[in-house]
Amino acid sequence: MSTPSPKGQLTRDEVAHLAHLSRLAVSDEELDLFAGQLAAVLDAVAQVGKADVADVTPTTHAVPMTNVMRPDVARPSLPRDVVLAGAPAAEDDRFRVPRILGEEA
Amino acid sequence: MSDTLVDFDEVLTRYEPVIGLETHVELGTASKMFCGCSTTFGAEPNTQTCPVCLGLPGSLPVVNADAIESTIRIGLALGCRIASWSRFARKNYFYPDIPKGFQTSQYDEPLCTAGHLDVELDGETYRVEIERVHIEEDTGKNLHVGGATGRIHGADHSLVDYNRAGIPLVEIVTRPIPGTGAKAPEVARAYVTELREILLALGVSEVRMEQGNLRSDVNTSLAPIGSLDWGTRTETKNVNSLRSVERSVRYEMRRQAALLDAGERIVQETRHFHEDTGSTSDGRSKEEATDYRYFPEPDLVPLAPDEEWIETLRVALPELPAARRIRLREEWGLSDAEMAWIVNAGAVGLVSDTVAAGATPADARKWWLGELARRANDSGVELIELPVTPKQVAELAGLVAAGTVNDQLARQALDGVLAGEGNPGAVVESRGLAVMGDSDELVAAVDAAIEGNPDVADKVRAGKVQAIGALVGAVMKTTRGKADAATVKRMLEERLVSS
């Protein structure tokens, strides 16, 4: 994996790595384009770092609640034909997906 | 491709192994971790799914309270500290078995940390430090189509069943375990065995390894003896039998030693274990932890188990296997070695249940570790898989103790029980296995033995009492083993030995 670049910059290698993790095909031209665009996005977000938060407790969740749980009771699932109707492809009552590349068992 | 391997004993002359285990346990809850779908094993594909476990847009997870309770109980049984504040995190990766594009897991705030498990092996105790116990969800199951073996290699495409996706999965991670030397493979196995016993005692999972309820990732590394470094580890994924845990460590030690001997480096990687050959092969190179882009799960609020709840669970923990073994050993009056034999045979529960059904500890132990162990071994199955119950074994032992059958007849009765002919008493009846009393038939057999062996009879009459054994044997033969040897001997003596 590539080493993180200095703040505010993003290398082509980093963009290529992120694209791989997201399983996105990105062309060479797009790498240059996205590296610039993503750097601008990071810069914008980095402005949050300028806020003085020395006296602010970190927020762990937008809703101040804990221990929201449900009892362990099984409920009906969706009918299989409904489930598979949402699949790009189905075969033998299962979701059919393309061969998984780059990984061998 | 076959690896170069160094002889196991030779590995130990130059290297010191360090092992570590990450064990995944599917909890036995009725519903999934974050939704109400059933967890029943073996259901028709994709019949136990819903918008939540399929990761459909707009669906929201809700935590299963029983799964949290089970995780805390596992942590308590392992002597862990239970976190007063714990969060879920998203582990992001793209793979078809995880429909959401991330696995809901825990990262830097697990429910339980810093425990330990003492593992006994050949009279020695090895303390395994537990780094963490956390809760997450299981993945779907891929079926690779088009390849010769159902594996990814050569497959055209994959078929996915999401019934398993979202089943509560507890991960138990050890710290690195150094100092086990030649025992490393066996310590790894003994650790998983003991962990399995604890999970059984807690009743949190069926822990059926053949169904994948419990699977271990086994880390192994080697370092030159005397080195301060622990060496680079490999991780053998999803090892799902106790025997394979042991074999995978042994294999990796032998393979890594050959590489190190040749001056090569060990690559930190994921490996796959092959049951048929007992070997490992390289899998995908492990993505670095940062590649998972963990971040706190925004759809779930934190867990903050209160002290009172934790204490209630702690107090209610069942007797754990180690304590139970000590108690039973004392109750049964066995030596450490005798008890260890029962433990190693996986027969503690069977012997215990047999004693509870009325057999003496000595009889229960004798049957399970003797005749029944032999038969299990002959058929290549575990003791627990034999089609005989502890109650039936107790009944059989009772029939021997009452003199209804002798040991030989009892073994024939056992044949019948194992063949599904019913309980021991019924088999003795139907097969006519009861020992003969002082019956006319037995008298006739005794007289016939004397008449048929006049030379032997004369010797006995002349005072060579030990020769009587041949006559006893003749009677046993004509009665096809149904006579009681002691009774036969007494009857012969009455006829041949003048008092």
Shape of chain B: elongated
- Tell me the Rg of chain A in angstroms: 22 Å
Q: Name the poorly predicted regions of chain A.
A: 1-5
CA-atom Rg of chain B in angstroms: 30 Å
How much of the residues of chain A is beta strand, in percent? 5-15%
Characterise this structure.
Chain A has helices at 12-21, 28-46, 80-85; strands spanning 69-70, 90-91, 94-98. Chain A has 105 residues and is α+β, with helices and mostly antiparallel strands. Chain A has a domain at 1-50: Histone, subunit A. Chain A has a two-stranded antiparallel sheet with strand order 2-3. In chain A, strand 2 and strand 3 (94-98) form a beta hairpin. Chain A is flat. The two termini of chain A are 22 Å apart. Mean pLDDT of chain A is 82; it is low at 1-5. Chain B folds into 3 domains: 8-312, no CATH class; 319-431, no CATH class; 440-496, Arc Repressor Mutant, subunit A (Orthogonal Bundle). Helix content of chain B is 38%, strand content 19%. Chain B contains 17 helices and 15 strands. In chain B, helix 8 packs across helix 11. The longest helix of chain B has 20 residues, at 242-261. In chain B, 39% of the residues are buried.
Summarize the structure.
The complex is a heterodimer of chains A (105) and B (499). Chain A is α+β, with helices and mostly antiparallel strands and 105 residues long.
Provide key terms for this protein.
heterodimer; A: 105 residues; alpha+beta; Histone, subunit A; two-stranded antiparallel ribbon; 3 helices; 9% strand; flat; B: 499 residues; Arc Repressor Mutant, subunit A; 3 domains; 9-stranded mixed β-sheet; 3-stranded antiparallel β-sheet; 17 helices; 38% helix
Secondary structure layout plus pairing:
The complex is a heterodimer of chains A (105) and B (499).
Chain A: H1 12-21, H2 28-46, E1 69-70, H3 80-85, E2 90-91, E3 94-98
Antiparallel strand pairs in A: 2-3
Helix pairs in contact in A: 1-2
Chain B: H1 8-14, E1 15-26, E2 63-64, H2 65-77, E3 81-82, E4 89-92, E5 102-105, E6 112-121, E7 124-137, E8 141-145, E9 157-161, E10 168-174, H3 184-202, E11 214-224, E12 234-239, H4 242-261, E13 270-274, E14 279-282, E15 295-296, H5 307-315, H6 321-332, H7 336-344, H8 348-356, H9 361-369, H10 371-379, H11 390-401, H12 407-418, H13 424-431, H14 440-452, H15 454-461, H16 468-478, H17 485-496
Parallel strand pairs in B: 12-13
Antiparallel strand pairs in B: 1-10, 1-11, 3-6, 4-5, 4-15, 6-7, 7-10, 8-9, 11-12, 13-14
